[in-house]
Design brief:
The chain has 299 residues and is of the alpha/beta class. It has a domain of 152 residues: Rossmann fold, CATH 3.40.50. Helices cover 33% and strands 16% of the residues. The strands form 5 sheets. A 3-stranded parallel sheet has the order 1-2-3. A 3-stranded antiparallel sheet has the order 4-5-8. A two-stranded antiparallel sheet has the order 6-7.
Length: 299
């Protein structure tokens, strides 16, 4: 555990180069931690090899460094943490809070909510495929710094959820909880597309006896057609941007109003001194294609 009072982190998956949506999350998490006198850590969530793009982890790190965001410690790779995830899964099994499951995706009802088919045992003639965590009927309630009070009943929205997949890979929900605890993370700042994951992670945190971090879910960057900007869209990667323009555009998206004509170091100094999380818009913001194109090709 890290003794620093405030520990933030940015945890990208190496499924492509850093794009503008991820840059917004990186800048938000960096400033929320550093403006409070804390540290900022970087974790590469490389536990899903079929989705990973060769070399993208290194390019993401290089882009962050080029843009002025250097982690306060060694980069943590989830691929080096498989034993820790297995230990956590084993503990949940031992405590009766998880169970082997023989069901496949085709066995799910149309609602997608798992009905607990294997909770009391594997049906005759079937073999275990995955491990599921047991959710109860108690609503999960937490206060998100930006989105406000969030209440969800995982039993109604997802049911018992997978923590180790049928292909032997560990699920994001388990890995992120184990690693946030391991790194002593006290605040999780990320995109609002992950807001729905928070209650599942909070359930796991309680079950494993971990402290809960503070959460802040930033608005998503979407294009004019309403689609989230991401690695699988036509969005140009941040590597094509000039650093001051890239960071300045991210700050503007986050409701900050940096002055023009600053060097990169001066821009970061200004941002750290003037960071105002109350100015961040709560909901997804449309970045017009013309503005996106202008920002991403500015050199």
């Amino acid at each position: 555990m890290n003794p620093v009072a405030v520990v933030g982190r940015f945890a990208p998956s190496p499924t492509g180069d850093l794009h503008f949506g991820s840059l917004v999350a990186a800048v938000g998490s960096y400033l929320e931690a550093k403006s409070a006198g804390g540290i900022w850590l970087l974790r590469i969530e490389d536990i899903d090899p079929p989705r990973e793009v060769e070399g993208s982890a290194g390019r993401i790190i290089d882009d962050l460094n080029r843009l002025g965001m250097v982690a306060d410690g060694p980069v943590l790779y989830q691929s080096s943490r498989l034993k820790a995830y297995q230990d956590a899964a084993d503990l949940l099994l031992e405590k009766g809070l998880a169970y082997p499951c023989a069901c496949s995706r085709k066995d799910l009802p149309e609602s997608g909510v798992y009905p607990g088919t294997c909770r009391s045992g594997i049906p005759t003639g079937k073999t275990p495929r995955s491990i599921r965590f047991i959710v109860d009927d108690v609503p999960c309630v937490f206060n998100d710094k930006l989105q406000g009070l969030v209440s969800e009943s995982p039993a109604d929205t997802c049911g018992d959820f997978i923590i180790k997949r049928a292909d032997g890979l560990f699920a994001y929900q388990l890995a992120v909880v184990v690693d946030d605890h391991f790194q002593g993370v006290t605040q999780v700042v990320r995109g609002a597309d992950l807001l729905d994951s928070s209650c599942r992670q909070i359930c796991l945190q309680h079950a494993l006896g971990f402290n809960l971090p503070d959460y802040m879910h930033l608005p998503l960057v979407v294009s004019e057609d309403g689609k989230k900007l991401g690695k699988r869209t036509r969005t140009d990667p941040v590597k094509h941007q000039e650093p001051v323009a890239a960071v300045g555009q991210a700050l503007q998206f986050l409701g900050q109003n940096p002055p023009q004509g600053l060097s990169l170091d001066a821009l970061w100094n200004w941002a750290l001194e003037h960071w105002d999380s109350d100015a961040i818009p709560r909901f997804r913001t449309i970045l017009p294609d013309s503005a996106l194109s202008s920002a991403l090709h500015r050199t």
